[in-house]
Amino acid sequence: MVGFDDSPLVPYLDPPLTTIRQPVREMSLAAVNNLLEEIGGNRVPRTELLYHPELVVRRSTGPLRQPI
């Protein structure tokens, strides 16, 4: 079983839940900065922002397999 967003409580479940962790702080900062620019009257270019999630393996899944 795999969760998403890595809630602070997830490591304390039984078994601890494997999850996908997103860079929420970086995503939030980008959104707030763009919003503040718009509020300030500046035109913010519409671009796609890509973030790299992290797989956090815990005991709700087996170990990672090595490539053959």
TrEMBL record:
Gene3D superfamilies xrefs: 3.40.50.2300
Keyword Kinase: no
SUPFAM superfamilies: Periplasmic binding protein-like I
Highest taxon of source: Bacteria
Record's keyword terms, sorted: DNA-binding, Transcription, Transcription regulation
Transcriptional regulator LacI/GalR-like sensor domain sequence ranges: 2-61
UniProt key word Glycoprotein: no
Coiled coil: none
A UniProt-annotated Pfam family: Peripla_BP_3
InterPro entries linked to this entry: LacI/GalR-like_sensor, Peripla_BP_I
Name the UniProt record assigns to this protein: Transcriptional regulator LacI/GalR-like sensor domain-containing protein
Lineage: Bacteria, Bacillati, Actinomycetota, Actinomycetes, Streptosporangiales
